[in-house]
Amino acid sequence: MVRIGCVPKTNFHQRIIAPSLLAADFSRIGEEVARAATAGADWLHLDVMDGHFVDNISFGPAIVRAVNESNGIFLDTHLMISRPDHYLQRFIDAGADLITVHVEADHDVGKTLQRIRDAGLQAGLALNPDTPIERAVPFFDQIDLLLCMTVVPGFGGQAFMTEVLEKISMAAELRASEGHSFHIEVDGGIDAVTAAACAAAGANVMVAGSSTFRAPNMAAAIRAIREA
Ligand code: DX5
Ligand code: ZN
């Protein structure tokens, strides 16, 4: 399959917009994915929730596989699950391009990140809003993306937590001083206004669910976040 929209070699100076499928109409998933790609999405963000790590259940590898088979867009897969190590291979096999795991989950973080890269995928590490940047620093040379959650994960449509901006700035400073080049992604309550604040702090990958899929004009919403 021709993987249109797949951008494996991006860098952190590039603004990347990743609409979150969680805010899409689940009765028409294939059409919703195509709508996001046509509207200018760079990546598609897939929120996997197990009802244990977070208080919600979304979807698993079968949906990731179906999305991958329906569209070539780059799949940014966010695992909000307690045992990412146990389920990892299923998401790799399903066609994820980048897999993000939480530092707070119950696994050997370094080992899981290594397995993601060994499989030829990009590896991401996520921090909940309350988790300090120090928890991620030991893994900086093992990641392609650092996700700073800007809401407590579990649900779409929550309000952006301004206090996370300081952690984003610290992450960008540490990245520069230590010579790393991973993306900094933000997720939760992102629209054109909050994206501007996040970009100013050093984030370049903007996950946006409600503000894209539920906008009257998705292309205009994505453009606004890109230009913010
Ligand atoms: C929250 C998820 C987000 C969510 C964002 O737990 O990780 O990706 O879909 O939704 P919005 O953009 O509506 O806040
Ligand atoms: Zn997410």
Element string (H = helix, E = strand): EHEHEHEHEEHEHEHH
Poorly predicted regions are: 1-7
What summary fits the major beta sheet? Answer: 8 strands, parallel
CATH superfamily: Aldolase class I
Q: What small molecules does this complex bind?
A: D-xylitol-5-phosphate, zinc ion
Give the overall silhouette.
globular
Number of helices: 8
Structural classification: alpha/beta
CATH class: Alpha Beta
* Strand content bin: 15-25%
Distance between the termini: 33 Å
CATH architecture: Alpha-Beta Barrel
Number of strands: 8
Strand order of the largest sheet: 1-8-7-6-5-4-3-2
- Overall tally of domains: 1
Cα radius of gyration in angstroms: 16 Å
Average pLDDT metric = 96
Helix share, percent = 25-40%
Task: List strands and helices in order, with pairings.
Blueprint: E1 16-19, H1 29-38, E2 43-49, H2 61-70, E3 74-80, H3 84-94, E4 98-102, H4 109-118, E5 122-127, E6 145-149, H5 165-178, E7 183-187, H6 192-201, E8 205-208, H7 210-213, H8 218-227
Parallel strand pairs: 1-8, 2-3, 3-4, 4-5, 5-6, 6-7, 7-8
Helix pairs in contact: 2-3, 3-4, 5-6, 6-8
The protein binds D-xylitol-5-phosphate and zinc ion.
Notes on the protein architecture:
There is one protein chain. With 228 residues, the chain is α/β, with parallel strands linked by helices. The chain has a single domain, classed as TIM Barrel (Alpha-Beta Barrel). It has eight helices and eight strands, in the order βαβαβαβαββαβαβαα. An eight-stranded parallel sheet has the order 1-8-7-6-5-4-3-2. Bound molecules: D-xylitol-5-phosphate (DX5) and zinc ion. The site of zinc ion has 6 residues, from strand 2.
